[in-house]
Amino acid sequence: MTGELKDGETEEEFLHSFIRKQGNIYKPNNKDMENESLNEKAMEDVHTKEIDLVNRDPKRINDDVVKVDFEDIIAEPAGTYSFDGVWKASFTTFTVTKYWCYRLLTALVGIPLALIWGIFFAILSFVHIWAVVPCVKSYLIETHCISRVYSIFVHTFCDPLFEAMGKCFSNIRLRTTKEV
């Protein structure tokens, strides 16, 4: 430890002041430990953040896929119009049916599917982190070793052989003549 005992200070008092100045694992004073605690807090915030109930597609992944309105499905060309009341009733029926069927399906199937997709992506993350990346890294390390051995083999045996063959065949001349 650095520092010295002051006059009248016991060794225990010195030890407590030293730990207080340096910081301990419970109350960090140094920047690295403080940054680690901030990172841990940020990780907790990911799981406890509030959900935006107004904008439910903030990344706009369904902008052009499932936006289906009455006008996108049913349209009457000019000259073949139904009664106005039928048109209005059809619009209302379509819109309300789509709205309530979606709500009913999400209430019945949404939570089980969320559970299934959560499990699926947890398994996918687990496999990627604990199996795929280590296998790829291992493969690249082993391939690098093999590529060095292969490179030495080629430069030692194949390069001189092909260079000699090239010199031998460089004096060969082909002439083509047409027979009439």
TrEMBL record:
This is Caveolin. Keywords: Cell membrane, Golgi apparatus, Membrane, Transmembrane, Transmembrane helix. Belongs to the caveolin family. The keyword Transmembrane helix applies. GO terms for molecular function: beta-catenin binding; molecular adaptor activity; protein kinase binding; transmembrane transporter binding. The chain crosses the membrane at residues 104-131. It is a peripheral membrane protein. Pfam families: Caveolin (PF01146). GO terms for biological process: cardiac muscle cell proliferation; cardiac muscle tissue regeneration; caveola assembly; dorsal/ventral pattern formation; negative regulation of endothelial cell proliferation; neuromast development; notochord cell vacuolation; regulation of cytosolic calcium ion concentration. May act as a scaffolding protein within caveolar membranes. Interacts directly with G-protein alpha subunits and can functionally regulate their activity. One of its GO terms (cellular component) is sarcolemma. It is found in: Cell membrane; Golgi apparatus membrane; Membrane, Caveola. It comes from the Eukaryota. It comes from Cyprinodon variegatus. Its main location: membrane. The lineage of its organism: Eukaryota, Metazoa, Chordata, Craniata, Vertebrata.
